[in-house]
């Protein structure tokens, strides 16, 4: 049976939820599933904004048939070529042979990479081109590398809606509530929106800022992304989050402590440090085991926090393997503008700290504190002063930022 909802007078939500998928892009854990959003505009011409993943393909087709009734589908706008948003294109062309696909030149090229389609009816659009479909006029906006090279967005000049492709999306499924003001977005969704942005789009901050600059010239009353809730409440607040993330500026003043420990001694040092920071009035502290917490959560937290502490054992003369994996992830996602403190441990050759420092020095605008903690197998009572000096340096640097 169909499962649709009106977005407004003549726009319908025809997407759906997938609660079975465990890994988004076969990488990122999604314990609360994922939505695949698609929108059908019922005007003089009937326009579908993107499709969905094949996993919910049957539900999607039933939703479209329910809204269209005896009408036919005139246009399919494809904004992004990842298969979770365009995989049903061939099915739609079979059902609606006169359907015209709308997209830019790169989308047309990539359609031929993924499918064998007859694209004789393809309508190629460029930056700022418009398509009038009756009451609505759609304006197309290039958004390259947010987060693929072909991406575009669509602005409905009539209803002031930005169909934002993968931008402003979130992990998680909606439980009947479609809009951000129908859920507790700031408390229950923001962390997954941040994790989605930082891991999927985070590498491409300059490109995101470029698109945000374009969007700032538009009167946007609703943002309709391809994943997660639609945004119609406090849009400026959410755009400000994107500005922070895309600028690689810390979202909050706080400390993320990540440790790599085999027998618990390095973990102990992380806990002792957290306690010392708390005694000095730092309240925004998070401690993570790098071997237990998926890197996507740690990348997200690194974008949130102003200060990072990495505590690693020396493993095979190098950085603990899971910590090294995290460091590569942080660099791959272009993290910048953070203060970093280091704790190193080694039973006979303690080299992890030196190697972590070199790693961060190879990243942009990363300030590594001169103060650090060096352990030989375990933290000793005699090192209390060393821990205190390290904590003092962290707190002092927080005051300077």
Under CATH at level 1, the class of the largest domain stands as: Alpha Beta
By DSSP (H or I, 4+ residues per run), the number of helices equals 12
Whole-number tally of structural domains: 2
CATH fourth-tier homologous superfamily of the largest domain: Ribonuclease Z/Hydroxyacylglutathione hydrolase-like
**Structural class based on helices, strands and sheet pairing:** alpha/beta
Overall spatial form: elongated
How many β strands by DSSP? 22
- The span between the termini is 55 Å
Q: Approximately how much beta-strand content do the residues carry? A: 15-25%
Helix content: 25-40%
CATH names the topology of the largest domain as Metallo-beta-lactamase, Chain A
Mean pLDDT across all amino acids:
96
**Order of strands across the biggest sheet?**
1-2-7-8-9-10-11
Largest sheet: 7 strands, mixed
Q: What would you say the CATH architecture of the largest domain is?
A: 4-Layer Sandwich
């Amino acid at each position: 049976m169909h499962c649709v909802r009106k977005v407004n007078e003549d726009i319908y939500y025809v997407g759906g939820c997938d609660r079975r998928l465990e890994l988004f892009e076969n990488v990122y854990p999604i314990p609360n599933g994922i939505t695949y959003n698609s929108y059908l505009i019922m005007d003089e011409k009937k326009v579908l904004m993107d499709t969905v993943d094949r996993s919910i393909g049957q539900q999607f087709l039933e939703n479209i048939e329910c809204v269209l009734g005896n009408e036919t589908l005139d246009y399919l706008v494809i904004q992004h070529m990842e298969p979770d948003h365009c995989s049903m294109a061939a099915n739609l062309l079979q059902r609606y042979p006169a359907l015209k696909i709308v997209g830019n030149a790169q989308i047309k090229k990539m359609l031929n990479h993924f499918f064998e389609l007859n694209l004789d009816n393809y309508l190629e659009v460029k930056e700022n081109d418009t398509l009038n479909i009756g009451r609505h006029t759609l304006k197309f906006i290039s958004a390259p590398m947010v987060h693929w090279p072909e991406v575009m967005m669509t602005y409905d000049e009539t209803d002031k809606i930005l169909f934002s492709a993968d931008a402003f999306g979130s992990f998680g499924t909606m439980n009947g509530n479609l809009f951000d003001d129908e859920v507790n977005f700031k408390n229950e969704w923001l962390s997954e929106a941040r994790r989605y942005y930082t891991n999927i789009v985070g590498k491409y901050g300059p490109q995101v800022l470029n698109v945000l600059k374009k969007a700032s010239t538009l009167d946007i009353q609703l943002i309709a992304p391809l994943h997660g809730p639609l945004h119609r409440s406090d849009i400026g607040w959410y755009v400000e989050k994107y500005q922070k993330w895309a600028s690689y500026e810390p979202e909050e003043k706080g400390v993320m402590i990540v440790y790599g420990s085999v027998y618990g001694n390095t973990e102990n040092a992380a806990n002792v440090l957290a306690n010392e920071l708390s005694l000095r009035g730092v309240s925004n502290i998070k401690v993570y085991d790098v071997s237990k917490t998926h890197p996507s959560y740690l990348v997200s937290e690194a974008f949130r926090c102003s200060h990072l502490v990495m505590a690693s054992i020396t493993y095979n003369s190098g950085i603990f393997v899971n910590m090294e994996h995290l460091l590569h992830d942080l660099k791959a996602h272009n993290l910048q503008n953070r203060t970093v403190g280091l704790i190193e441990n080694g039973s006979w050759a303690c080299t992890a700290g030196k190697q972590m420092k070199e790693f961060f020095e190879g990243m942009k605008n990363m300030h590594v504190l001169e103060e650090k903690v060096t352990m030989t197998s375990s933290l000793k009572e005699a090192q209390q002063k060393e821990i205190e000096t390290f904590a003092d340096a962290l707190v002092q640097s927080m005051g300077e930022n």
